[in-house]
TrEMBL record:
InterPro entries: Tscrpt_reg_Rrf2, WH-like_DNA-bd_sf, WH_DNA-bd_sf. It holds the Pfam family Rrf2. It comes from the Bacteria. Coiled coil: none annotated. PROSITE patterns: HTH_RRF2_2. This is Rrf2 family transcriptional regulator. It comes from Flavivirga spongiicola.
């Protein structure tokens, strides 16, 4: 459903948000290990999140990545848009180019409902909501 960049971006930002909530800064290496992503790929993802002011990179021996308090209100939809644009909300569920309301595929109308529900969920969920719903044991899913 999401591109690999988006999947790893979501994993990374959720992990950083959780660690920030625990007053920890996290290194590139730690993030890469915790989300089970190649370090070079993780670096590019973090660079994109930093350039878009979602995460903050702190330089130096005691540095790392954190999320500023006001950025905890970042909606998951914003992160998805950053990596994948709005393609998840458009197009055919079967990947057909000629599928539209005038010439629908067999899944067209059902997929519209699912896509709308997904959009609503992504727009209503913030990093803060996710972090507040998690406990320390919930991070095991990152390495799947």
């Amino acid at each position: 459903m999401f591109s690999k960049s988006c999947e790893y971006g979501l994993r990374a930002i959720i992990y950083i948000a959780q660690q920030t909530n625990l007053n920890n800064k996290v290194s590139l290496m730690t993030i890469s290990e915790e989300i089970n992503s190649p370090q070079a790929f993780t670096a590019k993802i973090l660079q994109q999140l930093t350039r878009n002011n979602i995460v903050r990179s702190i330089k130096g021996p005691h540095g790392g990545f954190v999320i500023e308090p006001e950025k905890m209100q970042t909606k998951i939809s914003e992160v998805v848009f950053l990596f994948d644009g709005d393609s998840i909300y458009n197009g055919c569920g079967l990947g057909l180019k000629q599928c539209d309301a005038n010439s629908p595929c067999p899944l067209h109308h059902k997929f519209i409902e699912i896509r709308n529900d997904l959009k609503t969920m992504l727009e209503k969920t913030t990093l803060e909501i996710l972090v507040n719903e998690m406990n320390d044991n919930d991070m095991v899913w990152l390495k799947r």
